[in-house]
Amino acid sequence: MLVMFMCIELMLTAANLSLVTFSRTLNDVGGQADVFFILVVAAAEVVVGLGIVVTIFRRRATANADEISSMKG
Amino acid sequence: MNTMMVLATTKTIPDLLVFFVGAAMILVGAVGVIISRNPVHSALCLVLTLFGVAVLFIEQQADFLAVVQVIVYAGAIVVLFLFVIMFLGVDRTEELGEDRLRGQRPFAVALVLLIVASIVALGSEAKWSGGASSVVGPNQGPYQNVADLGKAIFTDYLFAFELTAGLVVIAVVGAVVLARRSADSNSDDADAQLLSAQGQPEGVDQ
To answer: Where are the alpha helices (DSSP H) in A1-73?
Structure first.
């Protein structure tokens, strides 16, 4: 499940790279400001997501996404 | 066409070399994240990807973002991932079971190829960017980048900046609440057994 989180960060980094490229093509600094905010939101998301993973692991002793298939407990 | 857009399309040999080195680092790191069996190897390949992205940011004259990317993403977020991996011990106990949905990997590869092909086709049809230039402010090159970015964030995007500051505070409070051990005996079975084996009443440190 932690590798899935890392892949989410990869996707956000890909969006950042596209935004910086288009900000240079269109000569606009707004693209770089967007990347700044995406970075902040990604950091907050990682904090909360890893907190959730730690809480799930304390209860069930597994971090495999296929085994966490019921919301009970 | 102003001069900045002309400069953005000229290619010299050092530019191409830096681009290919950065792109190779990104692709090798990204494939390594997916393929590695050990989550620690995946985290290290993610660091390689983020350094490659920082190299490309510097090449595109986004200096502040390159440094912030290295410090925040590679230096804080990946370290947080490694802390959680070591804390949970998933690098020793990860079992890779078989896929529950049949044929999802070939379907994923086909979907990725279809999406990349459609993006390339649509982009080349629209000559890669048809938007208005310099809507927020011009990109004035490597020595003005921090000043321009600061001006844009603190004047045009001030409301978004305050909202993200509030979001970060909420995330920190949420993490503290999630990681706190609660005092009742129904949760945290391992802690309850440990405390009852030691003969202490629970919630004594509250």
So the answer is: 2-25, 30-60
Chain B residue at shortest CA distance from A45: B171
Selection from B78, B75, B81, B29 nearest residue B52 by Cα: B29
Q: Does B50 touch chain A (CB under 8 A)?
A: yes
Q: How many CA atoms lie within 13 A of A68 on its CB side?
A: 15
Measured between its terminal Cα atoms, the distance across chain A in Å is 19
Give B135-173 pLDDT, tens digit per residue: 777 777 677 788 888 888 888 889 999 999 999 999 999
CATH level 3 topology of B12-96: Four Helix Bundle (Hemerythrin (Met), subunit A) (1.20.120)
Per-residue pLDDT tens for B79-108? 999 999 888 877 665 556 666 677 788 888
Asked whether this complex has an ipTM greater than 0.90, the answer is: no
> Chain A contact for B143, CB < 8 A?
no
Do residues A40 and B162 lie in contact, with contact meaning Cβ atoms separated by under 8 Å?
A: no
**What residue spans define the domains of chain A?**
2-60
Q: How many CA atoms lie within 13 A of A51 on its CB side?
A: 18
Q: Which amino acid is at B91?
A: D
Total CB pairs under 8 A between chain A and B: 179
Q: State chain A's maximal CA–CA distance in angstroms.
A: 53
**Structural domain boundaries in chain B:** 12-96, 144-201
Length of chain B equals 206
